[in-house]
# Entry
Amino acid sequence: MDTASELSRLLGPLRRAVVRATRSAEGLPDLPEAQIELLRALASEGPLSPRATAQRLGIAPSTVSNLVKTMSAAGLVTREPAPGDLRAVVLAPSITALDLLDRYDRTSSAALAQAIDQLPTDDRETLTASLPVLARLITALEPSRQQP
# Structure
């Protein structure tokens, strides 16, 4: 099997294993990955307009609208008047959402650290050395993240 096929095959199960371990350890709610990504975007770059959020995530504006509707009802996203244009809104994560993201990040880091510690030393060193390569791979896959 080639590297691309093997990496593709492993990424989904790895992501799901981290999410399961995190939710189990911390008793976090079962938020869909799309909601977590939206919250991350708003926490790091927000407040954002719905259109800017859709562009940032590479999804349709109608998808953002549906996510925000559900997340607003759950108290995770707030809609505020846009500065300078009272007809438009900007989206921001709620304090509850920021707390959830913080708990998720701390717990997932701890779960990964514990699992990594169980690997042989050579595997840990290889994994550490591969992190910059994985970051460059993300950039190569997402043209919007590439520098001009």
Observations:
- The beta strands are 77-82, 85-93.
- Residues 131 and 137 are 10 Å apart (CA to CA).
- The mean pLDDT is 89.
